[in-house]
Write a structure and sequence with these properties.
The protein is mainly alpha-helical and about 100 residues long. It has one domain (about 1-99): Large-conductance mechanosensitive channel, MscL, domain 1 (Non-ribosomal Peptide Synthetase Peptidyl Carrier Protein, Chain A). Helices cover about 80% and strands about 5% of the residues. It contains three helices and two strands, in the order H-H-E-E-H. Strands 1-2 form a two-stranded antiparallel sheet. Helix 2 packs antiparallel against helix 3. The longest helix is centred in the N-terminal third of the chain and has 34 residues, at about 15-45.
Length: about 100
């Protein structure tokens, strides 16, 4: 049974997947901190609010939390850029290995 388990781990790269999952979580926490603690305080003066968390748009009876939306948009864009760069490098390395 132990041999089957070891074969499963090797065949499906479970250890690499676990490491990637942990690194992804750490990267997300780092990007969240970058956006909320560095970028958003810089953008606050342009939002017309004391704090980016308080930046709201009032459209009739509807209130839109534009500050929170912009923070999440920055998070998404930065994480997407990081993933794009990593995948691009990995594909380039894989292509070089094939040659």
């Amino acid at each position: 049974m132990f041999q089957e388990f070891a074969k499963f781990l090797k065949e499906f790269n479970v250890v690499a997947l676990a490491v990637a999952f942990i690194m992804g979580g750490a990267s997300t926490a780092l990007v969240n901190s970058l956006v909320k603690d560095v970028l958003m305080p810089i953008a606050t003066p342009f939002m017309g609010a004391e704090s980016w968390k308080e930046a709201l748009w009032h459209i009739g009876p509807v209130t839109i939390a534009i500050g929170s939306f912009i923070a999440e948009l920055f998070n998404f864009l930065i994480l997407a850029l990081i993933i794009f760069i990593i995948v691009k490098k990995l594909l380039k390395m894989e292509e070089m290995a094939k040659k």
